[in-house]
Specification:
Keywords: Signal. By secondary structure, this protein is an alpha+beta fold. The protein is about 25% helix and about 35% strand. The N and C termini lie far apart (about 60 Å). Bound molecules: 2-acetamido-2-deoxy-beta-D-glucopyranose (NAG) (3 copies).
Length: about 280
Amino acid sequence: MARLSLDIVVLVSALASLTSAVPLARADCDKTTLSKAADAYVAAQTAGSIAALQDSFASNWTYQENNKVIDHQKGVLHKSLKIDHRRTNYDLVQCATYTELISASGPYTLATQIRHASDGKVTSIDTIAATTNSWIFNASKTLEYVKQEKWDPIPKEKQDSREAIQAAGDAYMDMWSDAHAHEKVPWGTPCVRLEGSAYTGKGQPDDSCQPGIPSNHSQAPNTHRRYVIDQEMGSVSIFCVWEHMMMAADSHEFRLENGKLRYVHTMTECGGKTCRL
Ligand SMILES: *[C@@H]1O[C@H](CO)[C@@H](O)[C@H](O)[C@H]1NC(C)=O
Ligand SMILES: *[C@@H]1O[C@H](CO)[C@@H](O)[C@H](O)[C@H]1NC(C)=O
Ligand SMILES: *[C@@H]1O[C@H](CO)[C@@H](O)[C@H](O)[C@H]1NC(C)=O
């Protein structure tokens, strides 16, 4: 018994030193640093040049597009696009952002996760770039729907925990391969899904995100998930490999309000081919 309590004391003091060390290691991960880089990213995408980002990069930064690490020079980042819509979410714990961009004339819808080192420098830009032939793609239509939505910041006292937000997203992503996953999704009403340019529900009070959810739970899972979680937005961005549809590069973003699913946005690209189930 005495030994046990000693072990607990050791454990507690180890934990205490660990928690006090965390803020120091993350000193440069503040919203200003993250938003500066996200703004530079949007400026770079608008210009079709990474010049605006140059000061933000760590020397070892990598560029990933549609789930493949590629030379950034060959990526969509070097195409000048007129940006019609932009929203950025902030993850101050992981030191990362998620940005949703729509360019009707591109035409492109872009989902981008940017990750930072503890010194604030950008270590990776990870983009899912949907365009003609992507799943239910029509950037103009997506833009029209996005403009009707409200993604207001959620007041502190009404925010869900990071764990609850991530669990909701994961449960949803598990529905293709787990027969019980849908029971764990905190379905809300109203709730709307924007999948490519397909809108399920028009925001009416009784609209639900449940029509058409997977009934076959024996499909390949959604793997290689990468997360950006923003409690103030109630959101989690999840990038993955959509294995059951041509191993597509997929972005799913979920917003919770009062613990319930409110919005789902998706962008899915099938290696330059026409996406088919
Ligand atoms: C990349 O550089 C940053 C410093 O800017 C460093 O913190 C990080 O560990 C490096 N990553 C790798 C994989 O070397
Ligand atoms: C995209 O949707 C708009 C309506 O928002 C429509 O006018 C246009 O024809 C559609 N484009 C294609 C290629 O289907
Ligand atoms: C469910 O998906 C699996 C994997 O694609 C497929 O083999 C099976 O035939 C599907 N089942 C039904 C009932 O469609």
